[in-house]
Amino acid sequence: LEALLASFGADPVAIHSLYELPSFVTGDLVGIALSRSASKARYVPLAGEGALGEDAVAALKGWLEDPAKPKVGHDLRDQETLWLRHGVELAGARFDTQLGSFLVDPVRIIPHPLDQVVREFLHRPVSMEKTILGSGQKTKRFAEVSLDGLAPWACHLVAAIAEMWPLIDARIDEEGQRDNLEKIELPLSKVLAKMQLDGIRVDKGALDRLGVEFEARKGEVEQRIYELAGKEFNIGSSKQLAEVLFEDLGLPVIKRTKTGYSTAAEVLERLAEKGHEIASQIVRQRALAKLINTYTRVLAEAVSPETGRVHCTIQQTTGRSGRLITTDPDLQRTPIRTEDGKRIREAFIPRDGWVLVSADWSQIELRVLAHFTEDPLLIASFVEGVDIHRRTASQIFDVPEDAVDAHQRNVGKTVNFATIYGQGATALAQQLGIDRKEAKAYIDRYFERYANVKAWVDRTVADAHVHKYVETILGRRRYVPELSSNNFNDRGYGERIAANTPIQGSAADLCKVAMLQIADRMAAAKLEAKMLLQIHDELLFECPPDELEPLEALVRDRMQHAIELRVPLVVDIGHGASWAEAKE
């Protein structure tokens, strides 16, 4: 093995590490495949048949940690997490074919899995895990596969990586994405690997108790629904629910689908607003069912018995705009605004004796919009530190800011965000529960007052029609194939993407730069504190109490100045004994 590693010299070497499924955080390390060229690859077994043992891991450690030995891989972030578990800190990452494919065209083959990237760039299929492990109840472990079966397969994969990475690397230069790869995404994968390994502590007992309570409340709500309906039925069946609401009870039909009556959330909410109790009870029942199925149950099952923590995967190549996405489980969907959502966040706790720290950008996307549009009213609002939603309401309703009431402010807030997401009058009308004519009047008045915003949106969409892509503040591209569609609705969707992606994508750029700078500053200051999660516009940390002051100062400074905009960035920071308390 030592001779093999020495023979590589300073040439880039493709690596592909194998671990027992389902998780790189808990699954045993099985082996590693190495390839310098498409025609030659070697497999090093580290567990199971033919395992070389600890001496091999020690030899690999020296090579993997040597920054002068360039490595290439697919999804290096997960491999870095895997090796960190074994005391090896991967260095010398030269290229990641998953990140490269994403930067070349983020949308085409999301989430850029190895088999699809190989098919895209080498125009041939490649066999993945199911080929040798099987699927369903008959799924085997790698340890059960003979070395004669495992080694050729692993070499086949790593040789494909070795063959295709120069092709993707050339495309990176063609698309002008070199800096985004080498200065942002590759370094960030190391930060995310550590975050994945650290995970976040969760009080499983608290989640279990919440689950029991939510089940009891759901049962009570369901009984009330049956009373109001005059019979029991399957509430989860859209067909049966529609029959009860619109045929048995004769409620007004709000919206139809191709197959009958719509029972979508907005329909039920409209019916509830009209005073129909059964609709409001169904909304409650659905909310409780989601809390149980999506949060309490899934989160409790995701707690590692070894660490007592939840270790999610942080995806770099899933968010079309460049946003980071958490999966297995998806912690970004943990509810924020409801009291029940707050109680779920109370179950997220720090390690003993430490505190959680939450740092949240205030209205980051609206501030990015102000930066791009250079709209004088938007810029003045953020420079002066006024309530932007109140100011927008003042402009829309033509009343003094101090006379804006709660309803008007909510309209102002909704219109502000409708601008970012490219909503038209129809969507805004549905959201506000008003007619389309009134919604269009709000939008027209908004663009009259914020004229630069309208000009920027029109210019951005027009440029996108010409170039077929849009760019973020760091020049990351998103191609918009919908703009070339013959379908009017598809083109409209493409135009909304074109207007929104520079805003949302630039907020993602800003967040990534801040995370990199914070990680560097924390390491330089030798802080024990850990960066745990990135959730929407929020970063979550845990730290010992004596590091609270320097950590908060460091985090605030980098989040506010990671990328300088034409308007100030504002960060709200809190800490506490739970995620909920840190957010208060």
CATH class of the largest domain: Alpha Beta
The CATH homologous superfamily of the largest domain is termed Ribonuclease H-like superfamily/Ribonuclease H
Number of strands: 17
Stated plainly, the CATH topology of the largest domain is called: Nucleotidyltransferase, domain 5
CATH architecture verdict of the largest domain: 2-Layer Sandwich
> Which regions contain 5 or more consecutive residues with pLDDT less than 50?
none
Strand order of the largest sheet: 3-2-1-4-5
What characterizes the major β-sheet? Answer: 5 strands, mixed
Q: Work out the count of structural domains.
A: 4
Helices and strands: which structural class? alpha+beta
> Roughly how many Å is the radius of gyration?
26 Å
Cα-to-Cα separation, first versus last residue: 55 Å
Give the key terms:
single chain; 584 residues; alpha+beta; Nucleotidyltransferase, domain 5; Taq DNA Polymerase, Chain T, domain 4; Alpha-Beta Plaits; 4 domains; five-stranded mixed sheet; four-stranded antiparallel sheet; 17 strands
